[in-house]
Design a protein that fits this description.
This protein is an alpha/beta fold. It has a nine-stranded mixed beta sheet with strand order 16-15-14-13-7-12-11-8-17, sandwiched between helices. The longest helix has 20 residues. The structure holds NADPH dihydro-nicotinamide-adenine-dinucleotide phosphate (NDP) and the ligand O=C1O[C@H](COP(=O)(O)O)[C@@H](O)[C@H](O)[C@H]1O. Pathway: Carbohydrate degradation; pentose phosphate pathway; D-ribulose 5-phosphate from D-glucose 6-phosphate (oxidative stage): step 1/3. Catalyzes the oxidation of glucose 6-phosphate to 6-phosphogluconolactone.
Length: 492
């Protein structure tokens, strides 16, 4: 069964970098799924644009291969593939010359100016400004045009500001969609539903009732052919500055008055600006950097980061753990333990809210300690939520208590395919809905918190600690939380 369909108006989606890795792995499959589910209007077109001299027919073949490689075989059918690829066109353009741009303009103008136009920058960030300038120079944009900007938005605060200013020369902020695909994940949106569509949790969603929060985004994969980019980024820039910080904001924000654009983004911004600074004075106690060594992943032997990179040494971290704190009334004294890494023991992303214990244990004599209730929001795999509660073991054996989860796994509760985050976000751009996209000031506020960490690591020469591939990271990450008398949540 398909997921719920909300129609969108006809559009032309131009994907700069339409023959790149992101387009092949994520964008074309996502658009294919929306088309297969009947959400893409018959007139809509998708136009790949980059330097390679493809014809539109060759681009359709590229797309067929991408779908074969990245869509589950059971979702591929000849008729839906053919319908989808017939929407595809290709223009051969260079961001740094005028070559190909008049042809792209002519193709777009076939539909007049009333149609929605979106330009997706699936290219290296150092080309974002060039593409924006060309779109403007050749008159491809009007006031309804939208532009999608991929991460990374900068590599520090100064470069992010420069990039944002460059884009702002050509587009208004309400035309700019800075994508963070974690915001399109189902469980992440469900976090908003859980908090604000139920009266149950919000009264206890604060320091009075919550002991601490954990956010883990663990990956089994290594560099996946992106060594060049990764070596200039590292886990803090690649995952924490955007995805993990965004998740932390959604856990922590105050209720917005509506679930819409600036109302939500204003509240996220307040959290970003309330983050307790981490700098040279506390970086060694509040952060852990790691780098994977050789080990095993999914039962296979895997190389170290340095071997993957082909270098003798590197200061780039492939793992980060951070103890973050939010300086406001709601969260005073509640640590947010964050961790992410590559080549870890499994692919598992979750947010764990650990509540305080009952103020008095009336079962102390018969059952000993009672556990903290935990709410586990599983982002991937097996998206869903589990609320762990203490219950009595059935039977006459006395008051033996244990934790049992109230389990809501989406796959079991809803018999629908779980859409990829890009499916939702790509069409939100067409709708002009910026709720799940990052505003300029948010991105810059996130860098404002991250920059001093990067500087402090450099100043202290805090080298990444080695960890064996296939484990949960360096032992120092375990010590980071155990020092506080807590432990990382063990995935089921
Ligand atoms: N791949 C991924 O999983 C992810 C990627 N991203 C981001 O997405 C963006 C694209 O990444 P990715 O797809 O991996 O990169 P690739 O290197 O695979 O693709 C880059 C694309 O840019 C095109 N290109 C390069 N130079 C020019 C130019 N001067 N004019 C026109 N087109 C040009 C290339 O095509 P051609 O050579 O034909 O011109 C190619 O299509 C990056 O910002 C990356 O950080 C973000 C998250 C995940
Ligand atoms: O943005 C990125 O995300 C992926 C992880 O995304 P997921 O949806 O598979 O969890 C990560 O591998 C990549 O390094 C990073 O750039």
């Amino acid at each position: 069964m398909s997921s719920q369909i909300i129609p969108v108006d006809p559009f032309d989606y131009v994907v700069f970098g339409g023959n790149g890795d992101l387009a092949a792995r994520k964008l074309l499959p996502a658009l294919y799924h929306r088309d297969r589910d009947g959400q893409i209007p018959i007139e809509a077109r998708i136009i790949g644009a980059s330097r390679t001299a493809f014809s539109s027919e060759e681009y359709r073949n590229f797309a067929r291969d991408a779908l074969t490689d990245h869509v589950k075989p059971e979702d591929l059918h000849d008729d839906t593939i053919t319908r989808f690829v017939n929407r595809l066109f290709y223009c051969h353009v260079d961001a740094r010359s005028d070559e190909g741009w008049p042809e792209l303009k002519a193709l777009l103008d076939e539909n007049g100016s009333s149609r929605i136009r979106a330009f997706y920058m699936a290219v290296s960030p150092n080309l974002f400004g060039d593409f924006a300038a060309k779109v403007s120079q050749f008159g491809l944009a009007d006031e309804h045009t939208r532009v999608v900007v991929e991460k990374p938005v900068g590599r520090d605060l100064d470069s992010a500001k420069a990039l944002n200013s460059e884009i702002a020369r050509y587009f208004r902020e309400d035309q700019v969609f800075r994508i963070d695909h974690y915001l399109g994940k189902e469980t992440v949106q469900n976090l908003m539903a859980l908090r604000f569509a139920n009266a149950l949790y919000e009264p206890i969603w604060n320091a009075g009732h919550i002991d601490h929060v954990q956010i883990t985004v663990a990956e089994e994969v290594g560099l996946e052919g992106r060594a060049g980019y990764y070596e200039t980024a590292g886990a803090l820039r690649d995952m924490v500055q955007n995805h993990i910080v965004q998740l932390m904001c959604l856990v922590a924000l105050e209720p917005p008055s509506v679930f819409k654009d600036d109302a939500l983004r204003d509240e996220k911004l307040k959290i970003l600006r309330s983050l307790h600074p981490i700098d040279a004075s506390n970086v060694e106690t509040l952060t852990v950097r790691g780098q994977y060594r050789a080990g095993a992943s999914g039962g296979n032997a895997v190389k170290s980061y340095l071997e993957d990179l082909g270098e003798a040494e590197s200061m780039t971290e492939t793992f980060v753990a951070i103890k973050a704190e939010i300086n406001n009334w709601r969260w005073a004294g509640v640590p947010f333990y964050l961790r992410t890494g590559k080549r870890l023991a499994g692919r598992m992303s979750e947010i764990v809210i650990t509540f305080r214990k009952p103020p008095h244990n009336i079962f102390a004599d018969v059952t000993g300690e009672v556990s903290h209730n935990q709410l586990v929001l599983r982002l991937q795999p097996d998206e869903g939520m589990k609320q762990y509660l203490m219950i009595k073991d059935p039977g006459p054996g006395g008051m033996r208590l244990r934790q049992i989860p109230l389990d809501m796994t989406f796959a079991q509760s809803f018999k629908v395919r779980n859409p990829d985050a890009y499916e939702r976000l790509l069409l939100d751009v067409v709708r002009g809905n910026q709720t799940l996209f990052m505003r300029r000031d948010e991105v810059e506020a996130a860098w404002d918190w991250i920059d001093p960490i990067l500087k402090a690591w450099e100043e202290k020469r805090q080298k990444p600690q080695g960890y064996t591939s296939g484990t949960w990271g360096p032992s120092a990450a375990i010590a980071l939380i155990e020092r506080d008398g807590r432990t990382w949540h063990e995935p089921d």
